[in-house]
Amino acid sequence: MEQGLNLKLQQKLAMTQQLRQAIEILQLSAQELSDLIESEFLENPAVEFEEEYEDNSENETTYSFEEIKALAKYLDDDTSYSNAMINPDREEVNFESKSSLKPSLLETLELQVELSFVDPLQRKIAQYMIGCIDDNGYLKNPVEEFAAIFHQKRSYIEEVLEVIQTFEPDGVGARSLKECLTIQAKQQDLYHGIVQLLIDSYLSELGQQNYKAIAKQIHFSPSEVQQAAKIIQKFNPKPGLQFGSDQAEYITPDVIVRKINDEYVVIINDYGLAKLRISKSYENIADLDSETKKYIEGRVNAATWLMRSIEQRRNTLYRVMTAIVEQQKEFFDKGQKFMRPLLMKTIAEELEIHESTVSRTVANKYAQTPYGLIRLKNFFQANLGIHQEELIAGQIKDVMRDFIEHEDKKNPLSDQQICELLKEKEMKISRRTVMKYREQMGYPSSMKRKKY
Asked: What angle (nearest 5°) sits at the alpha carbon of residue 175, between those of residues 170 and 180?
């Protein structure tokens, strides 16, 4: 009886380890999966690679009806591989795409310009200006240059720049170190008192850390100067550098989404991914001694479970991506602005799987779309709920814009009132964030909007 319990315990432990491995494989990117397969090939003598042109009729991967139908459409379409060979000018699928692991500084600023400027001319000027911001995050061209190019007054250009200087990262768009630190201090409500005084007049002295000399000049104690200096030291003097250089690296998309005959087709990118199989030399182990047989059976079982987990990952990824395409059809038809609110829970309920499975499936993965390479998790960035992190800034701004455009001009809404109105729509953000968004959209304060 004790032996039976031990056997059950061993089986349960093995199953737990196998499930853990399946979960880990589900989360792997295409490159990570390729590395895992290569590692298994090197470490497990029971597996071998399938030869590309070998007759593998007994080991063929099975495809779902939907995948077969999609593949047929792909092969029938005039943009398929065979036609691409005839017409090399046609667009081909990039099985490896060049993209930064995170957006560049310019990409980040471009997105914020789209969200922040309603007026076409202001948006055009802003787009030109952010192109003149260097890798450190500083605007090197003088305002007069932009005024001459766009035939506008200096004050008009300054208004556009003031909005850009509210963008992330904090301090971007500054024309000097002093302005960069001032922007960051203002955004953190710290631009007053001794901090303001030090930034305005004593930056060079701060660099020498001569706190006693500064204290004598401004009539504060050395400890007060030192504490203020610590606050200033936390600001980033080169805010653009956190985005790194513009050097890009190649990312292998895990899935490819293409429009074929007015329908979107999801293709799992197996290109270049080696396929494993059990080595035929280990199929007959009947004549081996028990210890060797036990070892080989263990390696074969491990390889078999790995191959099943890889196939399960493939099937789950296909189902999840297909559901995402259905939910985000407007995005695929019209572009980034039409990304709709989407919860992982919605996909999970549709596919009758756990929400955590959806989360693991989209982790560390990219899709090649008609609009470029997109991280799968980005399809869920538009989730709406009662928490600030689940809101899209653009959607909040649309609601705020509606409030302001239809307010009583003689008694305009304050930032706090707008904040309360947003809460009624389950958009809970702080008054400070309301002020930031209002300024980004180019609306003045309620006092300046008031008409007498």
From this structure: 30
- 158 and 237 together in one domain: yes
Single residue among 380, 406, 436 that ends a domain in this structure: 380
Q: Is 12 helix (H, G, I), strand (E, B) or coil?
A: helix
Residue by residue, pLDDT tens for the chain (452 residues) are 445 544 444 444 445 676 777 788 888 888 888 888 888 877 887 778 775 434 444 444 444 444 444 444 444 443 333 333 333 333 344 444 544 445 688 888 988 898 888 888 999 999 999 989 988 899 988 999 899 988 999 999 999 999 999 998 899 999 999 999 999 999 888 988 999 999 998 888 887 777 888 888 888 888 888 888 889 988 999 998 887 554 444 577 899 998 888 889 999 887 767 788 887 776 666 566 777 778 878 888 888 888 888 899 999 999 999 999 999 998 888 877 778 778 888 899 899 999 889 989 998 889 988 877 888 988 885 444 433 343 457 778 888 998 999 999 889 999 999 998 988 876 777 888 899 889 888 888 888 888 75
Helix%, strand%, coil% for the chain, nearest 5: 60, 10, 35
Q: What is the CATH number of the domain that holds 413?
A: 1.10.10.60
Q: Which of 109, 207, 205 is nearest to 165 (CA)?
A: 109
Q: Which residues, at least 6 apart from 269, have a Cβ–Cβ distance to it below 8 Å?
A: 30, 95, 252, 253, 254, 255, 256, 368
Question: 3-state DSSP call for residue 201?
Answer: helix
Q: What are the structure tokens assigned to 321, written together?
A: 């991506």
271 and 328 in a single domain? The answer is yes
Claim to verify: residue 311 and residue 187 sit in the same structural domain: no
Last residue of a domain, one of 359, 380, 401: 380
The length of the chain in residues reads 452
Residues spanned by the domain of 428: 388-449
Indicate whether 315 and 419 sit together in one domain: no
Structural domain count, the chain: 3
